[in-house]
């Protein structure tokens, strides 16, 4: 996982819980003197360890924690990659372009990123069906990112998650309803 993702978690924890809590988390889950550099890669287990402790500190389930993190992550990424996000004039347009445009740009900017496969199709005027596949099984983070994207466009949305890799399916299905 790229450092930029860890930097976002760092900002979120420091803003909500303070620097001391973040320092404690680093001590528990990371090698000594860990500093996250956005473009470098760090072990996925480190993120999972940190997120597990955050969920305990906030008294939230892991899915709820990853959703909250994902929601915050969208704004964090959008701020750092303005030209990529500014291309899109609507929520719907952005969501159907995640794989072909956004993560394609990420491939050019970052060395060997680990990205999911996302297939998003317009189902009807108010519904998008999104299929998520990744060995990292971060579908709840994806849900959060989609909520964060909706906030970015001032939209109210609802997401159903009827098929999930965490329930033994080979992929996740997210049904997004928007106004
Ligand atoms: C990684 C989904 C928008 C850049 C990821 C991951 C997910 C995801 C779930 C975690 C890796 C995995 O699941 O295997 C989404 C969704 C988006 C979105 C649903 C929109 C709603 C963006 C945007 C950017 C971006 C706008 C930046 C321009 C990245 C980067 C990574 C990533 C840098 C980390 C790659 C790595 O650690 O190697 N994305 N993403 N994403 N995404 Fe996106
Ligand atoms: Zn899932």
TrEMBL record:
Residue intervals passing through the bilayer: none
Return the Pfam families for the record.
HNOB
Residue ranges annotated for the Heme NO-binding domain, each copy included: 2-161
GO MF terms on file?
heme binding
Entry superkingdom: Bacteria
Q: Which InterPro entries match?
A: H-NOX_domain_sf, Heme_NO-bd, NO_sig/Golgi_transp_ligand-bd
PANTHER family listed in its UniProt record: GUANYLATE CYCLASE SOLUBLE SUBUNIT BETA-2, SOLUBLE GUANYLATE CYCLASE GCY-32-RELATED
Name of this protein: Heme NO-binding domain-containing protein
């Amino acid at each position: 996982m790229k450092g930029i993702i860890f930097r976002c978690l760092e900002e979120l924890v420091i803003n909500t819980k303070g620097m001391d809590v973040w320092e404690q988390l680093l001590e528990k889950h990371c090698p000594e003197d860990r500093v996250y550099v956005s473009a470098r890669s760090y072990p996925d287990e480190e993120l999972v360890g940190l997120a597990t402790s955050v969920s305990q500190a906030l008294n939230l389930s892991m899915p709820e924690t990853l959703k909250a993190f994902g929601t915050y992550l969208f704004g964090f990424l959008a701020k750092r990659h303005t030209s990529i996000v500014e291309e899109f004039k609507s929520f719907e347009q952005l969501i159907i372009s995640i794989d072909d445009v956004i993560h394609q740009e990420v491939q050019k900017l970052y060395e060997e990123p680990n990205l999911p496969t996302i297939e998003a199709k317009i189902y009807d005027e108010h519904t998008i069906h999104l299929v998520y596949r990744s060995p990292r099984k971060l579908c709840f983070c994806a849900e959060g990112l989609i909520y964060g994207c909706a906030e970015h466009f001032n939209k109210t949305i609802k997401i159903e998650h009827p098929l999930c890799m965490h329930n033994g399916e080979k992929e996740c299905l997210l049904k997004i309803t928007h106004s």
